[in-house]
Amino acid sequence: MRFVRRINFSTVMLVLGLLFLYLPMVVLVVYSFNESKLVTVWSGFSTKWYGELFRDQQILSAVWTSLKIAFFAASMAVCLGTVAAFVMTRYGHFRGKTALSSMVTAPLVMPEVITGLSLLLLFVQMAQITGWPADRGMATIWIAHTTFCSAYVAVVVAARLREVDRSIEEAAMDLGSPPLKTFFFITLPIISPALAAGWLLAFTLSLDDLVIASFVSGPGANTLPMVVFSSVRLGVSPKINALATLIILVVSLATLLAWFFMRRSETKRKLAVKQGDTA
Q1: pTM over 0.70
Q2: If DSSP codes are grouped into helix, strand and coil, which group holds residue 34?
Q3: Which of 114, 116, 133, 201 is the most exposed place for a label (fewest CB within 10 A)?
Q4: Local structure of 225: helix, strand or coil
């Protein structure tokens, strides 16, 4: 009876939600070790599809292309998003602030089809006027991904900046620290967890994007989602299950490491504050 009483509506919904999110991933991981070519028919345990995956040069090339684009897009998005967040939160009311905030956050609500089509038209017009880009490829995908990833980074960093105690920055500047030095030595370490979260979010969004990349890519640049989508339309291969399993493993490890380092940094910061208060 006591066990039955502990089972309430919230617990049941939590379990159902977790099953809905993670049960398909578990099934996918299990069937990545299926020996059969049919992904829905289990015929025995085998790791041969992982070997087939690492021998597929098209998929490996697409993985490397997607990782490079995601890394550079996330890095640039953190730079641009941090500047935009700083302007939106630290500057007072100025003419055009509402328009700037709306334009920065527009990619959050803009359909990806519209974003991809508008960027395609922009690149076509630029090629006709200036001659660049002559061919759409990694550079155009990088610019497109940076455009919409910057909005997500700006929202994350702006939320963190609003919570920062500005008296610490003011105290540093009162002691003679220039604003730029105060930003790099005081503000930046405080908002570093938000920067890491924004970078990971931008990296994931860039790595996962299919619609925008399909508009702005050319014959010489195929990202991983584009290759997977084209192969799935011809029939799901067990190599895709193996690839998805490896991606889940890598993302899980990266998330765990990021959580560990951010938690350790936060613990050190709280300990330093506590020691300062004690002294």
Answers
A1: yes
A2: strand
A3: 114
A4: helix
